């Protein structure tokens, strides 16, 4: 579910992301190879929730790939092997119970209209994950972005790592990792830094406490 209708999403994505799409893809290649891929097995089934232009799901190494979004343009950017689900994420997902090993989402929960929609989305993630399956969620942390958080037209739901941790715990997940400061805030209207900087940043945990403005929560279905 989004507070914006599909045509609004199409216009927002085109305005905000089209000019940096290739750079974003290269950034995600580093993020996967140097960090996220270790949480995802080569034979596992993965859903990218709020997939955008598919920078994550197109490059992740796994057995089967799904992507969910309401942007009608999204399928045109996805690899042919990715199954696209165009639906409201707060309604019942078009997937069987226990059919996923990983639900990944980046910079998506803040676009939901309210906490009730987020709660229903978490319920569906838990239903569709197999026992031991992981929810991996990152997003802007309102704790460190009190003003800049609202500079994006489609930001509606303000979250911190602790509020999301409590939300997933009340939905039956066990939290394995909770970082209040992970990545810097955004690539929108930012310089395209050399990717070696990102590789170095991921290895330097002290830098996270200075530049990190996004949370990372990794939770598991018992």
UniProtKB/TrEMBL annotation:
GO terms for molecular function: methyltransferase activity. The keyword Ribosomal protein does not apply. Signal peptide: none annotated. GO terms for biological process: methylation. It comes from Pedosphaera parvula (strain Ellin514). This is Methyltransferase type 11. SUPFAM superfamilies: S-adenosyl-L-methionine-dependent methyltransferases (SSF53335). It holds the Pfam family Methyltransf_23. InterPro entries: SAM-dependent_MTases_sf. It comes from the Bacteria. Keywords: Methyltransferase, Transferase. The keyword Transcription regulation does not apply. Gene3D superfamilies: Vaccinia Virus protein VP39 (3.40.50.150).
